Amino acid sequence: MTPALELLDVTKTYAGNPETTALRELTLRVDPGELVAVVGPSGSGKSTLLQIAGTLERPTTGAVHIAGADTRRLSDASLAGFRAQHLGFVFQQFFLLPHRDVLANIAHALLYRPMTVRSRRAAAAAACERVGLGHRRHHLPGQLSGGECQRVAIARALVGSPTLILADEPTGNLDSVTGGQILALLRELNSAGTTLVVITHDHSVAADAGRQVELRDGVLRRDTGRPERGSGSGVNRVAPSRSTR
Ligand code: ADP
Ligand code: MG
Predict the structure, then answer these.
(1) Which of 94, 189, 198, 201 has the most CB atoms in a 10 Å sphere around its CB?
(2) Ligand 1 atom with minimal separation from the 51 CA
(3) Is the pTM of this model over 0.85?
(4) What does the pLDDT look like over 143-175, one tens digit per residue?
């Protein structure tokens, strides 16, 4: 099976004085159909991992493969189209277009696709239904609750059937009840086949995911692996990388 995502020995160093190494020699494979929670304290490199997995940033060293494609071979210009085809993003801040209605916000994710306006609208309407917002399709973001805004963002992420959806603290701006509903929606999408990597600093959120990956100071410290794969506890301690020994 071709992995949805492979990070191979990824190091990310941000320039500055002093420079910051946010990820160190990180290797991670996510297979199609997985739901992976990435946990770790603030500053441990979670968002950097998402930016690099999402090809929004390039690693300093190492490789990122998505659906078998080595993204080092893609120019910055061709990456935009590649991302539109393979990746969906959900952020803590919903990043909706304020003057466009729900359907237009969702359809926006299909702009790079060779589709007619009509078929984009039809796909957006179906995604809108999937997240339970069919009755809000002509509302503007300002007329929606936070949880509804995040549902729109999730519909926008999934409408193009991407290889992988990456979510960075998707419940970070929501109360716990609404956050729980958003997580239930993400689990439901995963059960229907969507591959998801969800970043959270909340361990109770992560406990629900099939697989947990823990970062500390940019190093992969723990990876529970896929639940159905392991026997026993299923927890693999990850040896410290060379740089930390
Ligand atoms: P987390 O999401 O786990 O809180 P981040 O990936 O945001 O962690 O940050 C990891 C480290 O990298 C932190 O020390 C942070 O200050 C640093 N960092 C993140 N982004 C940048 C950037 N654009 N420039 C410089 N340093 C950064
Ligand atoms: Mg972060």
Answers:
(1) 198
(2) 6
(3) yes
(4) 999 999 999 999 999 999 999 999 999 999 999
